[in-house]
Amino acid sequence: MAADDAVALAAALVKRWEGLAFKPYLCPAGFATIGWGTSFYPDGRRVTLNDHAISEAQANEFLGAALAKIWNELKSRLS
Questions:
Q1: In terms of Cα–Cα distance, which of 28, 35, 31 is closest to 49?
Q2: Nearest to 53 by CA among 19, 24, 15
Q3: Span 28-67, pLDDT tens digits
Q4: Minimal CA–CA distance to 52: which of 24, 20, 17, 14?
Q5: In angstroms, how far is CA 74 from the centroid of its own chain?
Q6: With 70 as the cut, is the pLDDT of residue 1 above it?
């Protein structure tokens, strides 16, 4: 499976079960979260409750970056 296909499939699954939040909130586990369950931005910074609201496009970008990172890690460990 190509990386783009895997990320798209995983993103669809996440979006089915995870709510979309434009402003940061505390998830049930106690972590500041934004977008589709993002707790770390693509640049590695942790989400805080003081962060600015984001757009749906940004939420999708953050989710795609997180899933691509996971895909690459899995691929490297299974190769």
A1: 31
A2: 24
A3: 999 999 999 999 999 999 999 999 999 999 999 999 999 9
A4: 24
A5: 16
A6: no
Distance in angstroms (rounded) separating the CA atoms of residues 33 and 2: 29
More confident of the two residues 5 and 20:
20
* DSSP for residue 51: S
Q: Answer positive or negative: Cα dihedral of 37, 10, 41, 72.
A: positive
Q: Which two tokens stand for residue 20?
A: 């979309």
Choose among 76, 70, 74, 78: nearest CA to 11: 70
User: Which runs of E-coded beta strand occur in the chain?
Assistant: 21-26, 32-35
Helix axis angle, 56-78 relative to 3-17, nearest 10°?
Answer: 130
